[in-house]
Amino acid sequence: MFTGGKSFVSSPPAFSNDAKRLLVCTGNTVSVFSTSTGLQTNELEGHEAQVTSVIVVPASKVLNYCWTASLDGKIKYWDFAAPELMKTIDIRFPIHSMVIPSLLNQTTESNGKLPDLFSYVYSEVVKQKEEHSNSFRGQIQKCNLTKSRLVGGVKLAETQSPGSITISPYGKYIGVREKRKLRIWEIPEKDSEHVCYKKIRLHHTRSITALAFHPTERVIAAGDVTGRILIWRGVGLQTFSNSKLVNGPNKDEEDRPGVRDEDDADSCTTWHWHSAQVNVLFFSSDGAYLYSGGREGVLVCWQLDSGKKKFLPRIGSPLLYFISSPDPTLSSISCADNRIQLLRTTSMEFLRSISGIKLPSSHLATYEGFGSDVVVNPTDGVIAVPAEDYRVQFYSLFDDREIQEVQICQRNHHPGDEITVKVNLVALSRDGSTMSTVETRLPEEGIGSLVTLKFWARGSQSKQFNLSTVIYEPHREAGISSIAVRPTGHMAVSSSYGGDFKVWVNRHGTPPKDETHQNAGWTCHAVGSYKKKPMTSAAFSSDGSVLAVAAEKVITLWDPDRNTLLAVIGDSVEPITTLSFVGKSDYLVSASRGSKPQLTIWSMSKLCATWSYRLDAEAISCSMYNSTFAVLVLSEQMVVGEATLHPHEGTIVLFNAENAVPLSTWLVSKVALPSNLHLVHIYVVFVCNIYSFSRISGLAAISVSISVSIYFPRIIT
Fold first, then answer.
1. Contacts of 76 (CB under 8 A, 6+ apart)
2. Which helix (H) or strand (E) holds 692?
3. Of 24, 68, 191, 217, which has fewest CB within 10 angstroms of its CB?
4. What confidence tens digit (pLDDT) does each residue in 184-203 have?
5. Burial bucket for residue 353 (CB in 10 Å: 0-12, 13-18, 19+)
6. Smallest Cα–Cα separation from 174: which of 122, 231, 223, 125?
7. Residue 369 pLDDT > 50, yes or no?
8. How many CA atoms lie within 13 Å of 374's alpha carbon, on the beta-carbon side?
9. How distant, in Å, are the alpha carbons of 313, 415, 420 from that of 412?
């Protein structure tokens, strides 16, 4: 089974006791990474749904046990060094969060036996359709891990929806956020099935988004949606104290500054630096500092006594989680771009990162010429993904890890800022030595748009891409619809909505041997057009002898060396959006979209259409070697065989260009953001090229699950 791409930031990770390994929730599994190399060393497989919590059992550095909880309603106990599953508990409710306070303060009973181990789970109660939609769906329940069952009659809270539970460093308190209030419970030192809980509530005027407990004092920190941080001191002195305080209950509001209503706290201080909601709050192990982070991509370190702060800027993505390790000098930061950064806490510098497949911005408006296509080098299974922070990420699907990142545009990117530049097109040569990119500066108030074409060369020794040539406005003010690199030589083509295409050649012809910046080597070799029609797509044949350019509704065939028009074929109803030669065969595939979409196969020897379907093709990928190609079809509703596809579903169809009957068909279910269709593009390309390599029919085992969106293919024919 081939898998490429996982979400590394769906839940907080956990360090091993020796801080040499990091356990990361990755879909239905837990991946174990080495903190010294950033490479995956193990994987815990067994859950049937998303893993939401991973908790390492505190012990000696030799022992490596952990508990995991999942939306499949199961709690599992593992030896993650083996790896080996030791125990499974099924509570039959989806678990969104779990904490185990007893692990942090476990003591031995007088008879020498260990007491029962209890966990607290934030579970989801599945309601029947006929029940009221406003009924409570979230419950905090207690589970006896020793006896493998829920504790009957113990329900700490009911909420409208399940969330996350926060635990204090030594397991004395647990808390949850519920809109504009906090619920805090004190966990008894000797926990059992028959104990009473003391609880308090703290209130705020805004929705609370983060919660943290001080390690030694009764201090609680919370962050809200506006970027404010609240510090409550003397929390629970009345409720949680064993002895009654003399003056506590009668204190006036003037004696409790910032405290609202009847909240059990001595004071409440507000700090404000963040411009958007606070996602991360965490106290240092000695309690002297408080770390905070949010959408700005900046980690702020506050001195608790004075409120002074220092910053770790330019992280490049909104912060989600901050986790400390048993080694006080090591911690991790989980970022929204599907990346975990390992941080040396003492010097506030990054050591290394663990990255999944990054996603481009999902909130960009549609501009002419904009796309976020994923490019695949099928020889080594590496994909090139245009990311949000002006970079192109190279990710190996075979090794399931990031290879490198290339900074396309030198700009100081702040996640909270408005996007002004978009890397919208990427093309690679077949051997991976040349990359071409198109970046567009978005217009402000309708003016000021700038299109830049760049060529990059990969060093033969360093394997890093270095900028070779920069061309501003290669097609004047018109946007670029596509770029393609010639398979057999140092030639590329860019097509324009302005009505022309340009052929570019590299006069040097050899990649650099080091990382020295190369002088401009790419120049315009020729310019072509056809009746001033918009040029909407371009592609080279496998041997590079023919260049196909779509001139709106027709296909023009050119000799790229002489820039002479060889033939004009086709006359589609809608403009052609995609062209691709099918491997080393005699066929060219085209796709047009609109009210009357069409997928057409053309014979180059006969210069005519061989067969066609009325399909709205979202993506097409062709084999490099034979005549197979794959098509992704997304539709509001369609019937494939006996299956009916709904709006969130589509189909991947594998064809042989010589026959209109599909070889195989997969259903594709989309379960997240509708803008990230390029994730299915990866799957289409991967399926087609794996089929080309292996020439087997059992392709249903190939799957791709990536960051925010996950697609589940299943064979139907």
1. 44, 46, 47, 67, 68, 69, 70, 85, 87, 88, 89
2. helix 678-694
3. 217
4. 999 998 888 889 999 999 99
5. middle
6. 122
7. no
8. 31
9. 11, 10, 11
Q: Do the beta carbons of residue 390 and residue 314 sit within 8 Å?
A: no
Instruction: Tokens for 90, please give them.
Output: 């099924």
- Tens-place pLDDT, residues 204-216: 999 999 999 999 9
Q: Tokens representing 522?
A: 């790419």
Measured in residues, the chain has a length of: 717
Cα–Cα distance, 570 to 598 (Å, whole number) = 12
Q: Which amino acid is at 465?
A: F
β pairing state of 14-15 and 465-472:
unpaired
Among 464, 479, 474, which Cα is nearest to 433's?
Answer: 464
Q: How much is the pLDDT for 516? A: 44
Tokens of 531: 């009746």
For the CA atoms of 274, 283, 13, 54, the dihedral, rounded to the nearest 10 degrees, stands at -130
Instruction: Name residue 372's amino acid.
Output: S
- How many angstroms separate the most distant Cα atoms in the chain? 98
The answer to whether residue 705 scores a pLDDT higher than 80 is: no
Residue position matching structure tokens 């113990």: 154
CB 108: neighbour CB atoms within 10 A?
9
pLDDT in tens, 21-42: 999 999 999 999 999 999 999 9
Structure confidence by residue, pLDDT tens digits, 315-331: 888 999 999 999 999 99
- Write down the number of H helices and E strands in the chain: 1, 56
Of 58-67, 242-251, 288-297, where does the model show the most confidence? 288-297
Sign of CA dihedral 189, 191, 194, 198: positive
CA-CA distance, 160 to 139, in Å (whole number)? 9
pLDDT of amino acid 136: 72
Question: What values do phi and psi take at 548, rounded to 5?
Answer: -105, 130
Confidence (pTM): 0.84
The DSSP annotation for 482-541 comes to EEEE-TTSSEEEEEETTS-EEEEEESS-S--SSSPPPPP-EEEEEEE-STT--EEEEEE-
Q: How high is the pLDDT of residue 608? A: 94
Whether 375 and 429 have beta carbons less than 8 Å apart is answered as no
Give the pLDDT score at 647: 52
Burial of 408 (0-12, 13-18, 19+ CB in 10 A): buried
Q: Give 447's DSSP letter.
A: B
